[in-house]
Amino acid sequence: MWPFICQFIEKLFRETIEPAVRGANNHLSTFSFTKIDIGHQPLRINGVKVYTENVDKRQIILDLQISFVGNCEIDLEIKRYFCRAGVKSIQIHGTMRVILEPLIGDMPLIGALSLFFLRKPLLEINWTGLTNLLDVPGLNGLSDTIILDIISNYLVLPNRITVPLVSEVQIAQLRFPIPKGVLRIHFIEAQDLEGKDTYLKGIVKGKSDPYGIIRVGNQIFQSKVIKENLNPKWNEVYEALVYEHPGQELEIELFDEDPDKDDFLGRLCHITLLNFQWFTLDEVSKGKLHLKLEWLTLMPTADNLDKVLTSIRADKDQANDGLSSALLILYLDSARNLPVSYIFMDALWS
Hints:
By secondary structure, the chain is of the alpha+beta class. It contains six helices and 18 strands. Strands 1, 2, 3, 4, 5, 6, 7 and 8 form an eight-stranded antiparallel β-sheet that branches.
């Protein structure tokens, strides 16, 4: 399958990524890929999990543990600034979910397939000419790390790649599904964190300036910083849309804010309990985090809206922008008979 996967990736780069980059910034309007060669080393699938419970009978859900270490050749240029850069190798490791739906009674038996990562994969890119690229106006505030985060998040739910296999399938419903629900995260407090700030060249141990980064898929929230405190109280609330349940997981990292590089204070992964809970932080010697998690199911009617409004008014001060009572989903399908703009042509002829 690898040669055909490479063809699909090249098509994705040229028809989706290239126009998106051009439209992102006026300085990138002449951006283009001059060569796309993913290489001959195929993707490896190290494990497969198939879901058989609590799934729609017209779909098949697979989780693939993928690993790709490839010598590729991807060249790009920005003609306006005579800039050339490229990629000569890529590594990517993570869990990719593949959904085959709808199942149909005729060949090829599957109407479409959707691909996405449940959480940010491990991504490493060996660049050529990256310095030239970052010298382009509008990009000089970026870094290698920021670019990797942008690429990674493009691959993570709710972003997805949907490939129709038959013409009759409703592609919009597959590409933009209704969320399964909302996860309300009460980010309350922490205790007994490590003191990372030091004085007199490390002789005297100080405290920390802790803050948290909360991730659900590519939705990222950052708490306020509590200065000089090993037992901080944030009492903040965040709400994240959940599109795959089970599958999407809550991930939290704590850091100590510093002028140069923030110090790591601990991590929580694979959190599934929906109640008040103290969690012991991973990958550090000490520290606990206090959370309250609520699962909010979406209702198709507004019958219970008054009850929900009454409930959240009591907690209105917990979130900076208030707690949600409903979810509005707007799908922009198409536009017709738009006025013709001659601005580009005028500029061209002048």
